[in-house]
Each structure stands twice: as structure tokens, then as C-alpha cells.
């Protein structure tokens, strides 16, 4: 069991068992969309030998997979959980260093980390700029941030998700995602974007939504339904049955390569100081950096 730092007296204890953790991990490994996020993240993170790394994600299975993939070379990983349930899931999975926090504040000293991985976080804070300032504060000079956000778009997938009511009631979403311009506005005061990668085109996203609908649960959520072994066994069976559907979806996404990605994963370098910047604008209203970021996202590998 891992060590959990922080006050968790405000939430009731959850009956988290090894079976629940194993089932959630099994579903993760059968989800092409979540495994693709893991691959993108690890490629951008690169070597972490001997470094202090913080990861924060709403997906406990992704947190475990990240540390398993990057655990070599003497790297010291810390995990930030935003609920007692998430912290217990991580502890039961054997994560050694777990901290409990309330975003956007981070319970760490200045310059504590060489790298930070933040996935599925910005969409759930009221003021993303405050979250980015906190990330900047806890990072050492000229270190790197790996950031995953959903790209804000009006798509059939998002329409179907809203109509189905398939959302995590334990995590109210503040915004549906970010456009490249909005993401730049959040980053520009303290970070320089080095590389951006997109993933999750229409068919893979739609196949994942169908799997969640048939399973009747979001497998990465911390709501009671996603912590019920019977519901998780059913979800695992659904994801196993959907293997050919996921395979077909990836083929269709490759054929329709011109369709936009639904997710953005970027690597940004921390600048020495957090300084609000006013940048010159192009004739179409975009800044030079925004245009460059949009170009990177538009041409990234799917």
C-alpha cells in the first residue's frame, strides 16, 4: 500500500479492493484510446532517469501504467489525487507516493519536480491559468510539462455523449476542452510549447463511446458504479467483445486521416519566470505563437 499525504477526513471510506483495481487495469489495457494516450505521453516525456516526476490524472489506471512504464532509471514518481477514492485506488495498486490536493492549489514546495504529467485536469478547474501558474511554481528551472487536454469541437461524439448522459457525476466539467488558441493563452505566461501530438479521431472516439454505453459505466470514473466489481466485470467483457470494433475503428481513422483529432498532448518547456505576456497579432487576430501552435497541432501524427 502507498503512503497518502493530505487530509482525507471530509470523505467517507470506500471499499477499494485488489479485485477492483485489477479489473480497472484490465479494462484500461483493452482500451485503444487510453493506451494511445499512454504511448503519446511516454514518448513526449522521454527519459526520466534520476528525476523527480509528478503525475496527475483523473484515470488511476493511466497513473499506474505511467509509473510502470517510467519506473526504471531511479526516477522518483509522485501522484496527486483529487479525491479520497482516487487516492485509495492508487494505494491499492501499490503506488508508493500519493498526495491529496484540491486543484488548482498543489501541496508541494517550489521547484520540487523535474517533470510534470497532467492529464484530463485543465477541463475541471474554474481558472486554468491559476492551475498553470501552480504547475510553473512547483517545477524546477527549464524543466518540462506534458499536458493532455481534450480539443474543443462540436462533434457527433460529443452530442451523443451529452444525450446519453454518460458523464462522471463526481467530477463536474468546467469546459468541454480547449481550442489551440485557448490552450496557448493558458500556457503563454510561463511555458514554451516544444511539440504537440494529436490522437483520437472520430471512429475511435465513437467506438469508445459505444463501449461505455454498452458497459453502462465510465471505467475510469470514481463514482460508485465504476467501483462495483460486478459492473466492472461486465465492462471488461464488453471491452473484450469490442476488440474487433476497435480494430475496425483504427483502420477507418487511418483511411479518413484528414479528420481532426479529439485530443491534444503537448510537451512544454518551463521558462525561468512566470510573466504575463502581450504578444503581437497577425491580421486575422491570432498571435504568431498561436499560429505556430495551431500549425503544430494540425500537422501532428494522428
Write structural notes for this entry.
By secondary structure, the chain is of the alpha/beta class. Helices cover 41% and strands 18% of the residues. It has helices at residues 18-29, 32-45, 60-69, 84-92, 128-138, 156-164, 180-187, 202-215, 229-241, 243-255, 288-299, and strands at 3-5, 52-57, 76-81, 97-100, 113-119, 139-150, 191-199, 263-270. An eight-stranded mixed sheet has the order 1-4-3-2-5-6-8-7. β3 (76-81), α4 (84-92) and β4 form a beta-alpha-beta unit. The two termini are 37 Å apart.
Structural class: alpha/beta
Average pLDDT taken over every residue: 88
Into which percentage range does the β-strand content fall? 15-25%
End-to-end separation in angstroms reads 37 Å
Rough shape? globular
Rg of Cα set: 19 Å
Number of DSSP helical runs: 11
Poorly predicted ranges: 7-14, 298-302
Proportion of residues in helical segments? 40-55%
Amino acid at each position: 500500500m502507498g503512503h497518502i499525504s493530505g487530509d482525507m477526513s471530509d470523505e467517507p471510506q470506500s471499499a477499494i479492493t485488489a479485485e477492483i483495481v485489477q479489473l480497472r487495469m484490465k479494462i484500461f489495457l483493452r482500451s485503444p484510446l487510453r493506451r494511445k494516450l499512454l504511448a503519446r505521453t511516454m514518448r513526449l516525456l522521454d527519459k526520466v532517469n534520476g528525476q523527480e516526476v509528478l503525475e496527475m490524472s483523473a484515470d488511476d489506471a493511466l497513473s499506474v501504467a505511467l509509473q510502470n512504464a517510467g519506473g526504471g532509471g531511479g526516477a522518483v514518481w509522485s501522484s496527486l489525487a483529487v479525491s479520497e477514492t482516487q487516492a485509495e485506488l492508487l494505494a491499492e495498486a501499490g503506488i508508493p507516493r500519493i498526495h491529496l490536493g484540491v486543484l488548482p492549489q498543489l501541496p508541494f514546495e517550489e521547484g520540487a519536480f523535474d517533470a510534470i504529467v497532467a492529464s484530463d485536469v485543465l477541463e475541471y478547474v474554474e481558472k486554468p491559468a491559476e492551475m498553470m501558474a501552480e504547475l510553473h511554481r512547483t517545477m524546477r528551472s527549464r524543466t518540462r510539462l506534458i499536458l493532455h487536454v481534450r480539443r474543443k469541437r462540436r462533434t457527433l461524439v460529443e452530442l451523443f455523449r451529452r444525450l446519453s448522459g454518460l458523464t462522471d457525476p463526481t467530477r463536474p466539467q468546467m469546459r468541454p476542452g480547449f481550442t489551440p488558441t485557448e490552450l496557448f493563452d493558458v500556457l503563454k505566461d510561463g511555458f514554451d510549447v516544444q511539440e504537440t501530438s494529436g490522437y483520437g479521431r472520430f471512429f475511435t472516439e465513437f467506438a469508445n463511446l459505444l463501449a461505455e454505453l454498452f458497459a453502462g459505466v465510465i471505467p475510469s470514473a470514481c463514482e460508485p458504479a465504476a467501483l462495483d466489481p460486478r459492473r466492472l466485470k461486465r465492462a471488461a467483457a464488453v471491452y473484450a467483445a469490442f476488440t474487433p470494433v476497435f480494430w475496425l475503428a483504427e483502420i477507418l481513422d487511418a483511411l479518413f486521416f484528414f479528420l481532426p483529432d479529439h485530443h491534444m498532448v503537448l510537451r512544454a518547456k518551463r521558462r525561468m519566470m512566470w510573466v504575463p505576456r502581450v504578444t503581437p497579432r497577425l491580421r486575422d487576430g491570432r498571435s504568431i505563437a498561436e499560429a505556430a501552435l495551431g500549425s503544430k497541432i494540425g500537422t501532428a501524427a494522428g
